[in-house]
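Regression test attached.
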Amino acid sequence: MTGLTPTGRVILGMLAYGRNTGYEIKQYLDKTTRHFWAISYGQIYPELKRLEDQGLVVGRSDPAGARARTVFEITDAGRVALENWLGDTGEGIWELRCEAMLKLFFSDETDTETTVAQLRTFRTQQERKLEALRQLEPWAREGSHRGPYLSLQLGLAITTTIVNQCQELERQLTEDGSD
Amino acid sequence: MTGLTPTGRVILGMLAYGRNTGYEIKQYLDKTTRHFWAISYGQIYPELKRLEDQGLVVGRSDPAGARARTVFEITDAGRVALENWLGDTGEGIWELRCEAMLKLFFSDETDTETTVAQLRTFRTQQERKLEALRQLEPWAREGSHRGPYLSLQLGLAITTTIVNQCQELERQLTEDGSD
DNA sequence: CAGGTCATGTAAAGCGTTACATGATTTT
DNA sequence: AAAATCATGTAACGCTTTACATGACCTG
C-alpha cells in the first residue's frame, strides 16, 4: 500500500521539516542525517517527481528571477504516509559497511604495524566525524525540533565509542608485540 | 590496477583464511563479518568466477559423491592483491544506514509514545545482535587468528553503546513528558 | 570579472538483494 | 521418510553513486 521507498520517506520528512527545494533538502541532509543516512542528487530529483505522481507532494514553479526553482510541499496524503511510516514499529533497515573492520578481521594476513596504521587511519576518519557532530550540537540543542538532537546524541555516542575502542586496540597491539 | 571490488576483497580474504567453497564462504561470513560487512550468494558465485578470470584464485571441481562442488584456492597473485589491499592505508568505505536514527530525527512529526516504542524496537534488535556477538566471543578468543577477535571487540563496543544510549534516550523521553 | 553558491537535472555504471530453481547428502 | 544441510547458480529488480551538463545569481 505504502509504495514509499526509503529515499521517499526521507524526502517526505524533509518536506515536513520545511525544506522545500531539492537543493535545500540536499544541503540540510548533508548537514544532519548524512551521518546515518546519505542520499545524492541523483535520487532526490527523480524521487520528488515520483512522490508528486503519487500525490504525496505538490510542486509549484517559483523562480528566483530567471533562475528556475521548484518549491515542494507535503500534501495531506503525504503527511498520512509519513505518520504511517513513523508509527510503524516493525524493524527498520540497519546496515553497517565498515572496511576498516573488514581489514581488522583479516589482519592475520599482514603484520602488526600495518594493522596499527589501519586503525590510526580509521580513528582519524572517525575523529573528523566526531568533530563535525560536535559542531552540530549547539544548533541541535537550541533548535525548535527535538528529533535532530535525539539522533545526534546516538551519533555522538557511537562515534565516541569507535574512537575510544580504536585507541584501546592500538594500545593492545603495540603493547604485546613482544611475546 | 587493482580492479578488485569490495566483494572481491572479502572473498580473497576468506580464501586466505581457508574457506574454499562459495557455500563455506557464505556460512563463515554469516557467522562473523555479517555484522559489519554482509554479502549474498548472488555476489559470491559470480565474483569467484571474475577472480578466477583475473588469475587471483583457481578453482577445481571436487565433487562429494554426485554432489557438485568447486574448491577454490588463492593464487600468489591473489595473495599479492590481498596484501596490497590490507597495506593500503587510504580511507576505506564507511557506511551506516540506520532507519531507527532517521525516525528519531523526524520524531517531531509524531508523539513521544511512538518515539519511545521505536527506540524499544531498535534496542531489541541491537540486543539480539549483541547476544549473537557475545556468543562468538569464546570462539574468537580461542581461535588461531587474532583478527576476528580484534574486530569483534569493536563490534561489541559499538553495539553495547547503541543499546545503552537507546535506554538513556527512552529514559529522557519518559521522564520529561511532564513539562 | 572570477569564484562561490543556488538550482536542476540525466545517463551510465556498479553494487547488491531477493527470489527462484535444482538436486544430492545427512540426520532425525 | 521428512527435514535439515550441503551446494551451486541465475534473473530481475532496485538502489545509489558518479560524472556530466547547464546556467543564473551574488560577493568581493
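Expected vs. actual: identical. The mean pLDDT of chain B is 93.
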